[in-house]
């Protein structure tokens, strides 16, 4: 979204502790005072007495009826007002303005005009950026974060500082390492991104039946959510950006005019699965179409995709355009001939609301010109207001309704801040650790130097789509808790590091210190919305800084990498003077503390990379090439661990621990027989052959996949003397090369906690139709017959699929 808040959060590392303590308690004291001072009537809401006698205000009536009733009271110009994110209200019906655009990617974010931090609530918990949270591979953590954010969001709504409709999660596949918004996503793998989407949406919308340990709301609220056939929502989450969106600005390409040329095959098994899961299993109540075109048609005009979401995936909710993505249909994509054609295209395709004003100003004209009917607008309204009804927006005073007791006391709570720390710890990835250099014993460290442009700026902890943190602790503050004698110098003037003018100072500090930690990498000046990178190397002279410090320091270095996008750190990987490398990404407000706990062994790292770290040579591939699959004839190496044919710097799923783990396969089937599940019984009709003679079946020609599902039972042993959390990943690969098949693919994962020298048993469910298949050139998922290999760590198990 091109909206930019002019708010800049930045404060520097402070050396004086008392000041820090005062500042720490200040917001707390202020919020207590203000809670008493703020009148409850500050919130505007519909169905306020005496304007509560309309049938749409009667909460005993079914939502569908109330929605139709409301629409029937509106004139056409009033209806059109609803088609804009900044809805100005219908005073004669007592309906106040409503801002549809609020953001909550990893905490309440200032990016949407629906959010304000200048009311009773001055800050909110900033969890790690999504890519880091994904690195934990921990589903219950994702769920808990989303429900904590939801509690804070509802509290902010109650104090008039947020809306009820939020535009997260961002679940586009992190296809290219240069992408400026890859940090916002759960990574490059469709199964991982799908799992994340489901947990986020369930946690955020407050709709999960199985997990009753949601922080912050009680059984009473849960019962309310079950009314109206379980359609009630605590908040609305939005699966974005639909679809094949993952380029900001690169070379001559801009997201506003980009035409993503995508094969049906890649669409089916890479780009669409996270959206399908987000809707089918997460039951998201919003879908956002993106700026780009897909094969020549702008995403917000793609009736086929938008209708597929409703008809095939069971989507019930509203579809919004990305901000100004209706305008781009005409102005940047040149797909529509006029502005009103763009509006007609979008509404006819199934878009219900425009972030921006294009529908507001052009819909009446489109109807006049016969390009649209009033019924098209009514359909959009029905989808829009139904979501507001599901949210309780028309149920009167929000403070008296469900979730009405949530307020400033529920924001930045100890629990939420503790969860932010827990999430940061779980997401840290140990990439290299020569001779078990880490963890350090704090008693052996007489002095510590922390060097680098990212060492002490708290703003760098948060990443894109952030708000004001409860309290952000930078790396120096975190490490100082362990070692009194620390020195901090930046080495570079900023992350871009264009000058070496302050290197000398850094070298002096490094020479004089017992241990040295370098904090280098990326920040939002290098990668962000509207900005892709052009190189995968460390920015500017950062690499020189690392090498020069390595040359003078007493001991091997610890390198801490910040930022979301992968960095080609081959030089450090191979340098014996660099003992350890940690990726902290954008670890959120508790990042400093989390890093210190990992460095000094109070937490045993278990995070794993949610994406491939490519070498710099990857930048020879044009970023606009959407193909996932390698193509040797044009020296195209493929993308992501599923298809990349060259050697990465660090592979997807890489991540070390302070202990070692081993596996034993306890039970896995050796053979699966499809015969009983084929639609025409014993008929061989559904069997096909690839050109190379490999037999396969289309998975939609099987009667049931559930009954073919099986579990892989695994015993995991912790072979070391530290407790730890370990991510078990099960992959599958075909035993013979089949055209278009991935090199391997993730079929399941689970994070388990294992005591030192202990063992635990776990199982991972495998649905062959979903997990052992891939898409053919027509976008149809196929399951090959013959041998499949299941891979768990070093173990390989052969599974024969026969008829
Ligand atoms: C609300 O609707 C119910 C069910 O139709 C009806 O019994 C009740 O009288 C209505 N309440 C008001 C205030 O109109
Ligand atoms: C929303 O609309 C109102 C009334 O037209 C206007 O005053 C306000 O500036 C708009 N807000 C945004 C964020 O566009
Ligand atoms: C808070 O910020 C919003 C938007 O920037 C503004 O409209 C409003 O007047 C501010 N409120 C206070 C109390 O400053
Ligand atoms: C950008 O456009 C210019 C002029 O048309 C062309 O020379 C150049 O090769 C293009 N660059 C890329 C990366 O496509
Ligand atoms: C900084 O760079 C200049 C030019 O490359 C070089 O001459 C100088 O030695 C460098 N200084 C340090 C401290 O690395
Ligand atoms: C997963 O996250 C939850 C929630 O923070 C935590 O309680 C649990 O210990 C984590 N699991 C593992 C194995 O780390």
TrEMBL record:
Cellular localisation: Secreted
Superkingdom: Eukaryota
Source species of the chain: Carnegiea gigantea
Keywords linked to the UniProt accession: Glycoprotein, Glycosidase, Hydrolase, Secreted, Signal
Organism lineage string: Eukaryota, Viridiplantae, Streptophyta, Embryophyta, Tracheophyta
One GO BP annotation of this record: arabinan catabolic process
This protein's record includes keyword Transcription regulation: no
Gene3D superfamilies: Glycoside hydrolase family 3 C-terminal domain (3.40.50.1700), Glycoside hydrolase, family 3, N-terminal domain (3.20.20.300), Immunoglobulins (2.60.40.10)
SMART domains: Fn3_like
The keyword DNA repair is assigned to this record: no
GO molecular function ontology, one term from the record: xylan 1,4-beta-xylosidase activity
Protein name: Fibronectin type III-like domain-containing protein
Primary residence: secreted
Residues covered by the Fibronectin type III-like domain: 726-796
SUPFAM superfamilies for this protein: (Trans)glycosidases, Beta-D-glucan exohydrolase, C-terminal domain
GO cellular component: extracellular region
């Amino acid at each position: 979204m091109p909206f930019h808040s002019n708010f800049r959060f930045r404060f520097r590392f402070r050396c004086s502790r008392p000041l820090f303590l005062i500042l720490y308690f200040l917001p707390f004291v202020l919020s207590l005072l203000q809670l008493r001072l703020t009148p409850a009537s500050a919130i505007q809401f519909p169905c306020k007495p005496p304007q509560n006698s309309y049938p749409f205000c009667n909460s005993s009536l079914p939502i569908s009826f109330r929605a139709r009733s409301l629409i029937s009271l509106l004139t056409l110009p009033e209806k059109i007002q609803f088609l804009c994110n900044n809805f100005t209200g219908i005073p004669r019906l007592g309906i106040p303005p409503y801002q549809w655009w609020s953001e909550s990617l990893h905490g309440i974010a200032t990016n949407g005009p629906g959010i304000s931090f200048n009311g009773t609530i001055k800050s909110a918990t900033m969890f790690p950026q999504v890519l880091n949270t994904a690195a934990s591979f921990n589903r219950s953590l994702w769920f808990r974060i989303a429900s904590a954010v939801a509690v804070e969001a509802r509290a902010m709504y109650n104090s008039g500082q947020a809306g009820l409709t939020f535009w997260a999660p961002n679940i586009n596949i992190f296809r290219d390492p240069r992408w400026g918004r890859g940090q916002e996503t759960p990574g490059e793998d469709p199964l991982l991104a799908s799992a994340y989407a489901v947990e986020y949406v369930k946690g955020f919308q407050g709709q999960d039946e199985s997990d009753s340990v949601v922080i912050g709301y009680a059984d009473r609220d849960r019962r309310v959510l079950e009314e109206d056939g379980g359609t009630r929502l605590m908040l609305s989450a939005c699966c974005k950006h639909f679809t094949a969106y993952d380029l900001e600005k690169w070379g001559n390409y801009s997201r506003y005019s980009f035409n993503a040329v995508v094969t049906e095959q890649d669409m089916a098994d890479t780009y669409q699965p996270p959206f399908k899961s987000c809707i089918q299993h997460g039951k998201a109540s919003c879908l956002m179409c993106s700026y780009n075109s897909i094969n020549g048609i702008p995403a917000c005009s793609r009736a086929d995709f938008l209708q597929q979401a409703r008809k095939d995936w069971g989507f019930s909710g509203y579809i919004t355009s990305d901000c100004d993505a209706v305008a781009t249909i005409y102005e940047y994509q040149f797909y529509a001939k006029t502005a009103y054609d763009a509006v007609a295209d979008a509404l006819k395709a199934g878009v219900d609301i425009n972030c921006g004003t294009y529908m507001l100003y052009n819909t009446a004209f489109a109807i006049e010109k016969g390009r649209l009917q009033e019924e098209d607008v009514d359909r959009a309204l029905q989808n829009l207001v139904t979501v507001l009804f599901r949210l309780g927006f028309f149920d009167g005073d929000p403070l008296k309704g469900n979730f009405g007791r949530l307020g400033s006391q529920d924001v930045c709570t100890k629990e939420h801040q503790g969860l932010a720390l827990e999430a940061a710890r779980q997401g840290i990835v140990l990439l290299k650790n020569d001779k078990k250099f880490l963890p350090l014993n704090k008693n052996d460290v007489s002095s510590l130097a922390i060097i680098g442009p990212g060492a002490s700026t708290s703003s760098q902890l948060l990443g894109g789509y952030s708000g004001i943190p409860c309290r952000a602790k930078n790396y120096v503050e975190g490490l100082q808790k362990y070692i009194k004698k620390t020195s901090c110098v930046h080495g570079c003037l900023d992350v871009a590091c264009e000058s070496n003018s302050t290197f000398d100072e850094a070298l002096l500090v490094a020479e004089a210190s017992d241990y040295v930690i370098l904090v280098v990498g990326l920040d939002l000046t290098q990668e962000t919305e509207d900005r892709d990178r052009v190189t995968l190397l460390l920015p500017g002279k950062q690499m020189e800084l690392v090498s020069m410090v390595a040359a003078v320091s007493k001991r091997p270095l610890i390198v801490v990498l910040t930022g979301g996008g992968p960095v080609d750190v081959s030089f450090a990987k191979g340098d014996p003077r660099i003992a350890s490398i940690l990726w902290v990404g954008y670890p959120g407000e508790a990042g400093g503390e989390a890093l210190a706990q990992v460095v000094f062994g109070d937490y045993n790292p278990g995070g794993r990379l949610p994406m491939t770290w490519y070498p710099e040579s990857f930048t020879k591939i044009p970023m606009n090439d959407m193909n996932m699959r390698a193509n040797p004839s044009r020296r195209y190496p493929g993308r992501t661990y599923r298809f990349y044919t060259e050697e990465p710097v660090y592979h997807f799923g890489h991540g070390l621990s302070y202990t070692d783990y081993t596996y034993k396969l306890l039970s896995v089937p050796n053979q699966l027989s499809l015969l009983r599940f084929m639609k025409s019984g014993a008929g061989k009709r559904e069997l096909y052959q690839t050109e190379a003679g490999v037999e396969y079946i289309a998975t939609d020609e099987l009667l049931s996949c559930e009954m073919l599902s099986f579990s892989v039972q695994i015993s995991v042993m912790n072979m070391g003397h530290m407790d730890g959390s370990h991510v078990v990943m099960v992959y599958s690969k075909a035993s013979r090369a089949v055209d278009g098949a991935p090199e391997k693919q993730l079929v399941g994962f689970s994070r388990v906690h294992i005591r030192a020298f202990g063992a635990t048993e776990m199982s991972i469910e495998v649905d062959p139709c979903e997990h052992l298949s891939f898409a053919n050139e027509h976008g149809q998922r196929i399951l090959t017959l013959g041998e499949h290999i299941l891979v768990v760590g070093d173990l390989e198990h052969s599974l024969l699929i026969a008829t």
